[in-house]
Amino acid sequence: MKPGRLLKHYRNHRDLILRSSYVIVLALSVVEGGGGNGKKKVKSSSAATPKLSWKKYLQFIKETIFMDRKTPILLGSQVLLLITRAVISLKIASLDGKLVANLVSSKFNKFLKLLVLWMVIGIPASFINSSLNFLQHYIKLIIRNNLTNKLINKYLPVSGDNTTIYKLMNSAQIHDPNQRVTTNIEQLSDSLAKIFPQLLKPSLDVLLCAYQLSKTAPNSNTAEGVLILGLVVHFTTLLLKKFQPNFTRLSIKSNDLENNFHIYHSKVIENNEQLALSKSYNLELNVLDKAFFELALFKRLEFRRFAVYDTMMTFIVKYTWGAAGLLLCSLPIFVQSQFKEINDHLINEFTSSFITNRRLLLTGSDSLGKIIQSKKNLQNLRGYVMKTLEFEEELNEINASQTVVKSENITYNDTEEIIFDNVPLVTPSGQTLVQNLSFHIKKGDHLLIIGPNGAGKSSFFRILGGLWPVVPPGKLGIPNEDPVRKNFFYLPQKPYFTIGTLKEQIVYPDSVEGCEVTDDELYKLLELTKLEYLATDCEELLQHDIDTLTADHGKPDELRQLPMSPFDYVRNWSDLLSIGEQQRLALCRLYYQRPKFAILDECTSSISADLEQDCYKYAIEELGITVLSVCHRTTLWRFHSHLLQFKVRDNITTTSFHKFSPEERLLKHEELVLLDSKLAEKQELEQRLKFLEQSTKSRARNRSILYISDDEDEEID
Ligand SMILES: Nc1ncnc2c1ncn2[C@@H]1O[C@H](COP(=O)(O)OP(=O)(O)OP(=O)(O)O)[C@@H](O)[C@H]1O
């Protein structure tokens, strides 16, 4: 094509070509500014950024938005409001220009009319602004609600075997589930609710301003100038990218450090009594200090990077683009003033155009800066999504594995038997504690489990309770589920108590709603473990509250809210009760539940020996509960008929299982203890004898030396 024809074509389609090139250049700048800077590394972070493909990221965002029908509708409304606001901003920009022009030419009436119009437009503008704020918070709440529910349902699945959290805490992946469900989801929802206005508002502003600028430029020759401005924006954005930190990495690392600090702090709170008694504040302070120091150090590094980036950003967006824009708006005026005679009308026109275009340019450059800055939020959001997805995938895996393991290696019988057939005891970390465990007991066979510390006694319970899988070729047989009576009830050495009512503690893990137990029945349960004073204490506290509120006539509402029964009085039971009392209250739970089998893992170790015996007797003889117990006191042996013994020799653990006669075994045990003590006595006597022989010998030697020296003395004499 000849240059002449090309020029003609250009002239014919000049407007279209320039406008589209301008938009393309701006879009390029946005994409460049929004693209990742993969080469940059966060120095203090040793871990690599976890991988998350864009497809998976967008899929997650899509699923989160469409989890609820309300969210897309609200997002749609947000978009509509944003478009309306952008159009209103344009209108206000042109009004601004006209207002100043009328002010300069002292046209008061026109100025007043425009001012009224300006105020009238302010009404929908204010409404739209506050509606946008409201919508953003509302969308955040809905997203947070949906995500939290989704994760909590996977975290505490009602349909599973209630082992998810245990398995999660034993997995190497997740150490901070509480943070993931709380802080992480909150940050994710906040970021996601902000991202649309953050991206859409400035994008719309940029597009509308670009369109308006190229349309309302004082001289159509400035269209090329607008394109040059676009190119300036593009290249400076590329420069800005060099200073841009990797926000995803920063947000992940910062989150991890925050979580570490939180975990250490929770441990201190949890073990406050032990720390006070062992006077170990100094040590714990060091640990907390170190965790916080790491966090603060990283935050400082993060802020420094942000500060450098912000400085560059402000300089480029506000001043470089601003100056280029001002030049673009003013140049045509200077050029025209050289050729035309300046009259009032021209001054008016110049002022109006300059003010309007300047405002449009400032809005445009500011919006472009915001789009580039929203990359930070996009990358932060990516970090939060990664953490949430990692958590969710781990939960999905655990929950899926539960059903597989259960169906493969566990069988149910109606003969009320527990059968361990060649079951290896393997820890979650893969260490085999016992090669194979084989035995079988039925209802009424009370099993005593003994063995040295760390041999695997509690681990056996973990397999029975479904916490650890039944590893092939092992097979586990357990009784069929019974709607009336639970199969198993587990009592550990340190039972768990909630902050709640006394009734809730006794009927746990049943809910008090729909529970038909009466206060008298609850009181009887407490009597069995000699804990009736707990109910009396609650009664006194309740009476005290009633008296105080009655004396204070102004609080009838609070009086009405007080419980009717002392069993409904709320207290923090785990802080309030001694370990022995906690173990006794846990026994009340056992009596209330009356399961077929009770798994008692040193659950009476802090109870006095005579009460312990009474409690065992009641459970076995009165309630017909079959016990499987780990206990170190020989006084409890008489309640058992079978023995599972763990023995460790040369670091290899073996087990033996047989019927057990407690009297015979106790006799042998007593004999063994006697022999042991005699053996110890013998060894002591032998040592004493050795010592005496040695000291006699050394005295004899000393004496002979003395004699020799006497002789020598004599010789000298
Ligand atoms: N979740 C786990 N992950 C890895 N190893 C574990 C886990 N729980 C326990 N173990 C290990 O398994 C071994 C057996 O522990 P277990 O609690 O069964 O011992 P125990 O015989 O009950 O000891 P004790 O009499 O002291 O209570 C120990 O070496 C312990 O460190």
What does this structure look like?
The chain is of the alpha/beta class and 717 residues long. The chain has 4 domains: 53-406, ABC transporter transmembrane region fold (Up-down Bundle); 414-496 and 597-660, Rossmann fold (3-Layer(aba) Sandwich), CATH 3.40.50; 498-576, no CATH class; 664-717. The chain is built from 21 helices and 12 strands. The chain has helices spanning 3-12, 14-34, 54-65, 70-104, 108-155, 164-170, 177-216, 223-241, 247-270, 272-277, 281-339, 344-409, 457-464, 502-507, 519-528, 532-551, 556-561, 573-576, 579-593, 609-622, 662-716; strands at 410-413, 417-426, 432-442, 447-450, 475-479, 488-491, 499-501, 570-572, 597-601, 626-630, 642-649, 652-659. It has a 6-stranded mixed β-sheet, sandwiched between helices. Strand 2 (417-426) and strand 3 form a beta hairpin. Mean pLDDT is 82; it is low at 34-48 and 708-717. The structure holds adenosine-5'-triphosphate. Adenosine-5'-triphosphate is lined by residues 170, 427-429, 433, 451, 453-459. Residues 170, 427-429, 433, 451, 453-459 line the site of adenosine-5'-triphosphate. This is BA75_02157T0.
